Amino acid sequence: MNGIDTAETGAAVTVTRSRHALTAAGTAAAVVVLAALLGPLVAPASPTAQVGLPFDVPSAAHPLGTDAVGRDVLSRLLHGGRAVVLLAAGATLLASVVGVTLGVLSGLAGRRPGEFVVRVVDVVAVIPGLLVLLVLAAGFPGSDTAILVGVGLVSLPFSVRVMRSATRQVAVRGFVDAARARGDSRWRIVRHDILPNVTGTMLAEAGIRFSAAVHLTATAGFLGLGAGPPTANWGRMVNENTAGIALTVWPVLAPALLLVTFTVSVNLLADDLAARWADR
Amino acid sequence: MARTFNRRLLLRTGAAAVAATAGLPLLTACSNDDAPAGGTSDTAPSPRPGGTLRAAFVGGGAAETLNFLMGPTGLDYVRARCLHGALGVLDPAAEHGVRYGVLERIDVSDDLTTYTVKVRPGVTFTDGTTLTARDVLYSLNAPVTLGSLPFLKPPSQNFDLARATVTDDLTLTLPTQRPIADGRLVLCQSTLVFKDGTTRFTPDMPTCGPFRLAEFEPGQGASFTRHDDYYGLALGTGPYLDALELRTIPDATARTNALTGGQVDFVSDIGPVAARTIEGDGRFTLAVSELPYATSLSFGLNLSFAPLSDVRVRQAVKYAIDREAIVRNVFFGRAFVGNDLSSLGFGDYADEIEQRPYDPDRARALLAEAAVGKITVAVSTAPEVAGMAETATVVVENLKQVGIEATLDQRPTGQLFSDFPAYVKLPFAASYTPPVPPLSSYAATRTAGSPSTFGFNRPDIDDLVGQARGATDPSGRRDAAVRAQRLIWEEGNQVIPVFAPSINAHTPAVHGVRDEPFTSFEQAYLA
Amino acid sequence: MNHAALAALAVRRTAAAGLVLVALSVLIFAATEVLPGDAAGTLAGADATEAEREQLRRDLGLDTDPARRYIDWAAAAIRGDLGTGYVGRREVVEVLADRLPNSLVLTTLAMAVAIPVAAAIGLVAGLRAGRRADRAVSTATLVAVGVPEFLVAALLIAVFAAGLGLLPEVSLVPLGGRPWDSPEVLVLPVAALAVAATAAAGRLLRASVADIAATPYVEAARLRGVTGVRLALRHVLPNAAGPAVQVVAVMFAGLVGGAVVVETLFNYPGIGYELQQAVANRDVPMVQGITLAMSATTLTVLLLGDIAHLLLNPALRGRA
To answer: Which residues cross the membrane (chain C) (predicted)?
Structure first.
């Protein structure tokens, strides 16, 4: 569908931002990623153990208080990032690998086979990403893998399109024809002539996809898709602790702040990356 | 299912009591009114007719139907109780423990084998016809002929309905299966009446309850108007309300928010967390029930799941659970520690049996002794009532601490019991039971062969319960009842760690809503 | 390009959309019923006997060939029969007929709010591309796009419902009525949906406007002294209409997804809430029917956007 063309170009029209803003965004994103990845190693308590009264206000023992079942909010926070960050990263990686493969091959193929590939992957792109996740979650309840595959699937059409058009732009430059004339194999052409020239586009594209993936995985967590309770997950923490918001805001506010910080900073960085790449 | 229906039974029982009250000349009703509710016992203004009361309940989501015989949620019974007349309600304070509704009285033969039921004259349906003994008999049979949840089946289990005779329009004679002294409780606990020959529960069916149906949208709610020919009105009692709306709001937070946002006047089962929030808010009133009106939260240990067939493993599970912590951490102290026996606070409850302690070491020792190897089990639950899912969360942690590989299988509200045959196959399943007396409810749901037993099959205990119920002297009843409960305590497959009172909240204008233990609006008014 | 050619193109696009829908129906069916394997195993419980499983498989019709089952399902769907949900034995089609209008009202209102605001944002920022106003708007929309809908909704609830007590936090619809019978229940859900939609559409429109603003035609108008609102409305907006229609179509698709979250949060009786419940309940026929209907709705809107785009853009017509 043509709608996707518009959606794709939207992010590429650039706004230059101050170095400070980018540094802040980069730092924030790095902190969140570190917290998500290393959190489980430093968490003071088990994320599922009851350590006190429910919805207790912050104390020395529990700096962010306790949640709906009296579990340590800080520990759940430190454990709950993996589901968001790793799932989003895995999905983006999946979409990038498959997207680059399909995009480059379809870019080098003739016009008709190339368009055919795009049409096929576009089938998924016409329906809202969350719908894809819900369908998969209905088929595979409680599965984080289904979420990963679903988010990857949602990203795939965009990756394929962008990589295909980047490949075609490279391919029309003389040196691919020259390489062909030299009798280089197709694989050699891909490796030596195409890939080095589309890597930047691929990274910029992956950045945009990653920010969308974070958004989707957080929403999936909030809706209770993927691995079920008592697993900690920032999205679900928001959902399961709203009942106590009048008693203590931290069980909701802390994961919400982390999510917002992460999505916004990743968005800013991805946008900047895309803008820089477009400028070159 | 035992749990499920139990709860319902209890609830129904309560509802029945309410109905009865309505029919009866006032007084009981008034005194009762706020007593179980607690907290609102200050001087209530006198009943005032008129107005529309809007109430919110957990409900069963889109699966709701008007067929309360199969309706698994409290709301199903609350709704049915608005529409249909009840034989009576359980009321420990009333003579024989029962307040009658559409009945005038029940007489018992000296040998405890024949019950004579007298129908109240002049009970009319919404189509103008009059309730007869045939309708009552049909309604007693309906749980079997039309199918029902187990908690509705006690009348057919205790009485030989095939040999029942309709003596005249208002008299019904019921032979018992075996001699029982508590047949009135069985009959009045949860029986609602509808017309002879009813096979489908439709919005336009004739009904004889305090309200008539105006609108019913599954998963959304139902609205009612007063039934102006209701027999209770002639007796000078409710219903007072012009109209009533029962809304389904599964999410506890949203339900409470509907009250604080002024969208409803009464919210059922707000849970301990919201109770703490509302407590400090002068705009609303909390109504917390007292014993015996507390819902038991329990877990059925399925004997067809091999490790749990070993009594030592069952005992280990019981010792592994930190009940005090559940009361403290899940209910903020607003709950009672359970001793793996149902019906805490009722007269036949065996309170002489010592409280089972929290003893994880003993649990580990018992597991080692049983030597059944690694136990991997999913604890299935759903947020059906406040604290139920959280209790299961704690239980899972407790089990892990004694080396059982437990996982939490949390279903959405309304989904745990919706497929009953699947439910009773779960290895470790949460349930809740509304307050019902122990012996008749045991007979209804725990007797060998009942699906809700999770495979528990103890004819010896069944016999003891039968002995207790058939005893003509109190000490004989007590003795057999306690012996049965001790066996259940030692070898049973039901863990009951906690009893939770119902916590409702309402605006100060709401009066006369009863929790018996199912919420009844028959006497409710706005002032 | 003449009308006949345009009509032919519209027919081709429609046929393509139809094919996409067929492909989607296959994917939906496969993901929910074929790939997960033996649903009977899950439903029957861990300790069911093999005979019980067999019986359940037969009862559920799972003992037949998946392709056969798909064809039966699709054929029934074409006849307007999407089957019956497991939960409450409700006809899927009836649920759709009852709930879809409520959701369409929600999304339509959100669009009615989002489109003018997004257009204003797009024009203001796009015409000043690279300047301070643009930077502010772009950053703000980028932030807004990044915040998941459930957090936007939670924030709105905290402020306007729980905090100020101005609006209901629960979308209680009058029994037997529709959400628009008590319009106050629509306000917060619409607002929550509109925030993300406005930000996303605003960014896309800004890009289109910035492109158009850089064209010689607009440059010429500027040199003639046309500025401000007049420049925006007379010279830029008409040229942005083509892309804008598509932005709106894409925005609608986004709103359909957002509606699932927002309806769930507000207990709003729409199709998104039903879908979330159906997924939680593992109610496969309901999930299949609702996602198929939502896909068809989205496809239709995208298709209409596509055709409108063709009609509004002479250059594209030529290309086609």
So the answer is: 104-127, 139-166, 186-205, 244-266, 286-312
E-assigned strands of B197-355?
211-217, 221-226, 243-248, 266-267, 285-288, 294-301, 336-337
**Residue B141, pLDDT above cutoff 90:** yes
Does the CB of A280 have a partner CB in chain C at under 8 Å? no
Residue B117 has pLDDT above 50, yes or no: yes
- Is residue B89 within 8 Å of residue B14, measured between CB atoms? yes
DSSP-H helix ranges across B192-270: 231-234, 252-260
Nearest to C170 among B64, B214, B258 (CB): B258
Name the residue facing B254 among C44, C47, C170 (closest C-beta).
C170
Length of chain B in terms of residues written = 527
Give the per-residue pLDDT at A226: 85
Pairwise CB contact (< 8 Å): B273 & A53: no
Got the DSSP string for A36-85? HHHHHHH-SS-SSSB-SSTTPPP-SSSTT-B-TTSBBHHHHHHHTHHHHH
**CA separation for the pair A52, B105 (Å, rounded):** 52
Structural domain boundaries of chain C? 3-78, 95-319
CB contact under 8 A, A230 and B390: no
Helix, strand, coil abundance in chain B, percent, nearest 5: 35, 20, 40
CA neighbor of B71 nearest in space, from B4, B144, B160 = B4
Mean pLDDT of C171-181: 84
Could you tell me which residue, C175 or B34, shows the higher pLDDT? C175
pLDDT digits (tens, 9 = 90+) for A248-273: 889 999 999 999 999 889 888 888 88
Q: Which chains are adjacent to chain C, needing at least 3 Cβ pairs under 8 Å?
A: A, B
CATH class, C95-319 region: mainly alpha
- Chains A & C: contacts with CB separation below 8 Å: 169
Region B77-97 average pLDDT: 89
Quote the CA–CA distance of C79 and C98 in Å, as a whole number: 18
Lowest mean pLDDT among A111-115, B15-19, C2-6, C250-254: B15-19
Chains that touch B (3 or more CB pairs under 8 A): A, C
- Compute the distance between CA of residue C254 and CA of residue B369 in angstroms, rounded to an integer: 59
**Residue B131 pLDDT > 90, yes or no?**
yes
